[in-house]
Amino acid sequence: MQGDPAVYPSPDGEKVQNGDRSIRSYNYQNIVFDHLPDPVPYINGFDHTSYASAKIALRNFLVTACPRMPFLDQTAVCDNFEKLFGRVGGTVLTTADRAIVVAALGLGAYPLTDLPNRQLFLTQARAEAVTVMYDINTEAVHATLMLAQLEFEAGSPNICYLHLGGAIRKAFAAGVHRSESQVSKHTMWTLYCYESLICFTLGKNPSVDDKDISRPLQDDLSYIAHFVRLCTIVRAAYRIYSLDDTVRSDLAAAASVSQQIADFSKALERTTRLKIGGQLYTLSGGDLAWQITFSYGE
């Protein structure tokens, strides 16, 4: 007696993902890791990209995102942008320097939904994550951190968390946390702050401890110094959820956090132009970017 012949999947049929067709069928990956982009080969799309569109994206980045990244040298980013597009000859960009420029274009292009070549900028920025995967230096930390920020703004906090973890590991491997330079200090402060917010959002434990950074001095009134102080309060608030204590202790901890937030708001208003919950239309540039950041963090 002969049964029906076995049915084998067609080579032209649906591609099996991770050895299990059901993973793709139920879209499990997208549930866990937000909206994963389809894998794309690394391409150099800038040969046929509008220079004018890229310039618009860069300018938007410099106004909106760059002020929140004090470790970046804006002049160097602009110079490397011109080199990337072949406007300045004789110099080949390092992998990390190129990734920083491409990530900047992605961050600048993302809010500009009508910008020509916007999707190409985003695709290219995500492809850069592979190119700096094995680079261990300060610039690679910056590039990976910028890619993490791009994924956060694109609505993929879990992918942001993965990139951020990579940036933190690179920073420790490169010894950034032990350096006394201003760039290294600002890099560690930014990693500390970004991780504080993303871990609070996702309910995960941060890996950069308070002792891994040098605290801002009292007379440091820069925006990034204020941001570090705010994120210290954020971490104190987060610890309330992990306390295994009495209700009275929880209420006391919550009251302490509330008072710290009130004190921070007063200090911020006294030493800067910013006011939590204040009007946005009176601000522009870096002031506006930090106003939004502080309001979100608080």
How do the helices and strands line up, and which of them pair or pack?
Blueprint: H1 21-25, H2 28-32, H3 51-64, H4 74-84, H5 95-109, H6 118-131, H7 138-153, H8 157-173, H9 182-202, H10 223-240, H11 247-271, H12 285-297
Helix pairs in contact: 3-5, 4-5, 5-6, 5-7, 7-8, 7-9, 8-9, 9-10, 10-11, 10-12
GO biological process, one term: DNA-templated transcription
Pfam families: Fungal_trans
InterPro entries: AtrR-like (IPR050987), XnlR_reg_dom (IPR007219)
- Structural class call reads mainly alpha
Shape: globular
Radius of gyration: 22 Å
Biggest β-sheet strands, sense, barrel:
none
Distance between the termini: 74 Å
Based on DSSP secondary structure assignment, what is the total number of beta strands? 0
β-sheet strand percentage: under 5%
Number of helices: 12
Order of helices and strands: HHHHHHHHHHHH
- Which spans of ≥5 residues are poorly predicted at pLDDT below 50? 1-43
Question: How helix-rich are the residues, as a percent range?
Answer: 55-70%
What's the mean pLDDT score?
80
